[in-house]
Amino acid sequence: xxxxxxxxxxxxxxxxxxxxxxxxxxxxxxxxxxxxxxxxxxxxxxxxxxxxxxxxxxxxxxxxxxxxxxxxxxxxxxxxxxxxxxxxxxxxxxxxxxxxxxxxxxxxxxxxxxxxxxxxxxxxxxxxxxxxxxxxxxxxxxxxxxxxxxxxxxxxxxxxxxxxxxxxxxxxxxxxxxxxxxxxxxxxxxxxxxxxxxxxxxxxxxxxxxxxxxxxxxxxxxxxxxxxxxxxxxxxxxxxxxxxxxxxxxxxxxxxxxxxxxxxxxxxxxxxxxxxxxxxxxxxxxxxxxxxxxxxxxxxxxxxxxxxxxxxxxxxxxxxxxxxxxxxxxxxxxxxxxxxxxxxxxxxxxxxxxxxxxxxxxxxxxxxxxxxxxxxxxxxxxxxxxxxxxxxxxxxxxxxxxxxxxxxxxxxxxxxxxxxxxxxxxxxx
Length: 429
Prior knowledge:
The chain is an alpha+beta fold.
């Protein structure tokens, strides 16, 4: 499973992303509140100092002489005409209240009081406070916030790991139990509470029950069909054998009866092989008897003798090596019959070569072939090439492929030097 697809890491990443977003919002909010509170409190403080002093001065000008207006600030009382001597002329335009002023790269809070007339003259009061934050103080604040943010992220990471383990523990348990069902079948829902995981376990139990019922019915059907087919096939075989034993039968009839016997044998082998495929079981002889492929191929070619003569084909069996296969002859016969039968069916004229090598059988035809795009699709069930005009169900090669998977063989089909195809059935001993 890819890293980004694991549910555990998705939870951790989502948790960290949320924590990072909340941490960033917290830092921005803290800095904004700090800045606003600092400047607002300073403004209110110096305005109150100025207002209090102006009230005292208006009541007792002599008694307030020498008393500072405010500490740690620039403060003065002045007549409007004397303002330019002590402050920039622009301060004359400031209204009563608190103002933010920038001068020479610094920020100031300026409190202005223009509400008092003393001894018939208008008196203005000013308090000017430097609110410029020192660079080292900013660096300290940002460093502290960065440190807290990193620490918060680390804590969030470990919390995310812990939370993901707790959250995924029921799912992990369910996954382990499902993987162990083949060895130790059990009811899953009984091990979980009635939550989302418990509902999933219940759904899996229901599906397993339905699937088990289907498999049982399928096995019973296959066994019944196999059993019921044996009786009519046995009747046909015994009847053909009895007729063949009569001496007055002519050669032509005897040849036809022999074909019926071969067809009955082939049907019995096919029935047994299809039953093995349905059960997905390997059948091997207890005495490790092997199937002689060369003799089996000659029997298969004899079964197609009528079609070969009708189409005027030439079939050559070239036995380069003596090949034996550790598998029932019925299984090997079905696989080879499909490959040889396809070569005969789709070759309108010419020669078909069946080459027996040390570990494989090659069926080389001179048929119409298929395109490169169609080659991988030949083993799909019910697939038939657009260029094929002959009737068929498209199941033959699919059966061969399943037999190969069951017995650990391999089958390959590719284009050959002529216009046709070469099918290779490879036996891994």
